[in-house]
Design the sequence.
């Protein structure tokens, strides 16, 4: 085997290692896209992700401008307003920035800012408080927002300092922002009945209006994303008794109760416990990121070993070859 051929093989191995590293790095940096409220309902708010992040996201969707070309435009100063500041992405949470772009983080409730977040974001109902962990990250060029993410700091029990958790960082699409904007709490709110029917909900709109008042659209949004799926899970997991005939007639009640109505025990201050399977699934997803990092590390080791072997054996092979005539 000639020296030239050995060098070509070594070069091919090097290129393959570099290509694999690039692919794995891009995969590990990718984050799941949430394209609709249906996707949003799949996130385990209340266990792995703070419920408050929904309130922050609801505010953000209604604070920015979205034009007919689906361009998102800033309406505030990301260097100072609404608990925002520049984000350096030093831990590599997000993709490297092209020239002219910047990342900003929004939503620090404890930061002194020139323009404060609304009271319902700063002082939400007790069930939605979560130690100021959740943030929105935006990728900006000029006044245009190119990408939107929701993320969160690690829990203090994980001893990760102020780093963001890549396993619970999600990219938010323009379509999802548009859907959330339908639940605006500004003047000219859409009727709750319209929103309930449009998103296929069985919410008690009268009760939500009585409980949330001027923030009724926000209350309906939270109910659809968080509480309704829990109520449906409870109903689906309830043991069936086909031999028992229910008697829903109360004292003095001459008309049958509506047994087909979806049970609604919604209270904004009521924390419901999520099912254990969702927590287990989150742990599995978290392990995927760790496996990707381990593979990258192993490939680095393989790369240096192969280069070392090439440097060690190529001179020996050259010496053993007969001299060229």
Sequence:
């Amino acid at each position: 085997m000639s020296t030239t051929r050995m060098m070509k093989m070594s070069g091919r191995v090097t290129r393959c290692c570099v290509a694999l590293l690039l692919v794995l790095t891009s995969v590990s940096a990718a984050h799941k896209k949430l394209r609709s409220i249906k996707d949003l309902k799949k996130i385990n708010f209340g266990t792995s992700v703070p419920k408050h992040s929904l309130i922050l996201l609801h505010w953000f969707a209604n604070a920015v401008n979205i034009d007919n070309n689906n361009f998102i435009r800033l309406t505030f100063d990301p260097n100072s307003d609404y608990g925002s500041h520049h984000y350096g992405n030093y831990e590599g949470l997000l993709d490297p920035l092209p020239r002219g772009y910047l990342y900003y983080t929004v939503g620090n409730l404890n930061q002194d800012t020139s323009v404060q977040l609304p009271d319902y974001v700063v002082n939400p109902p007790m069930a939605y408080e979560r130690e100021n962990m959740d943030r929105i990250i935006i990728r900006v060029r000029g006044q245009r927002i190119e990408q939107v993410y929701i993320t969160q700091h690690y829990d203090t029990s994980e001893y990760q300092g102020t780093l963001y958790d890549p396993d619970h960082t999600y990219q938010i699409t323009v379509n999802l922002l548009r859907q959330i904007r339908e639940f605006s709490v500004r003047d000219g709110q859409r009727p709750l009945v319209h929103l309930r029917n449009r998103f296929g909900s069985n919410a008690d709109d009268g009760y939500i209006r009585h409980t949330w008042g001027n923030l009724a659209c926000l209350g309906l949004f939270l109910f659809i994303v968080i509480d309704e799926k829990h109520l449906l899970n409870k109903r689906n997991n309830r043991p069936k008794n086909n031999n028992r005939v229910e008697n829903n007639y109360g004292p003095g009640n001459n008309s049958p109760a509506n047994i087909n109505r979806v049970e609604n025990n919604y209270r904004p201050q009521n924390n419901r416990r999520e099912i254990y399977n969702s927590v287990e699934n989150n742990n599995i997803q978290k392990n995927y990121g760790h496996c990707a990092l381990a593979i990258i590390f192993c490939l680095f080791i393989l790369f240096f070993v192969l280069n070392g072997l090439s440097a060690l054996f190529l001179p020996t092979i050259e010496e053993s070859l007969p001299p060229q005539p």
